[in-house]
Design brief:
Structural class: mainly alpha
Order of helices and strands: H
Shape: rod-shaped
Number of helices: 1
Helix content: over 70%
Largest sheet: none
Number of domains: 1
Number of strands: 0
């Protein structure tokens, strides 16, 4: 029976050694998984920071766009006012030109009537 007991202990020791090797391999896989998770977490944090920065930049860009729109509206108003002034100036110039033409005609008829002296 002693040989049976020796065989059992040898078998048991062999099985325990196999279990230890499997446990070591499992522990290495767990360590590797933990390292991967830590890397993933740091990447996720970096992504979150970039995302927050992008959101902040979008907010600033939105404000800049609003200011640009206000500036464009003011420029448009200024252009409308300039257009009105230009129209008035053209009308004034046309009236002046018409008056000048009538004056020239008057003087020409006067010169023709009185003759050139």
């Amino acid at each position: 029976m002693e040989t049976g007991l020796k065989k059992f202990f040898a078998y048991f020791e062999n099985r325990m050694a196999q279990a230890d090797r499997r446990a070591e391999k499992a522990e290495r896989r767990i360590d590797l998984s933990i390292r991967r998770l830590v890397k993933l977490e740091s990447r996720a944090e970096a992504f979150d920071k970039k995302l927050e920065l992008s959101i902040s930049n979008l907010g600033q860009a939105s404000k800049n766009l609003e200011q640009t729109n206000k500036n464009l509206e003011q420029t448009n108003k200024n252009l409308v006012q300039f257009g009105k002034k230009l129209e008035k100036s053209i009308k004034d110039q046309e009236a002046f030109s018409e008056m000048q033409s009538k004056m020239n005609q008057y003087f020409l008829t006067q010169i023709k009537k009185n003759g050139h002296k």
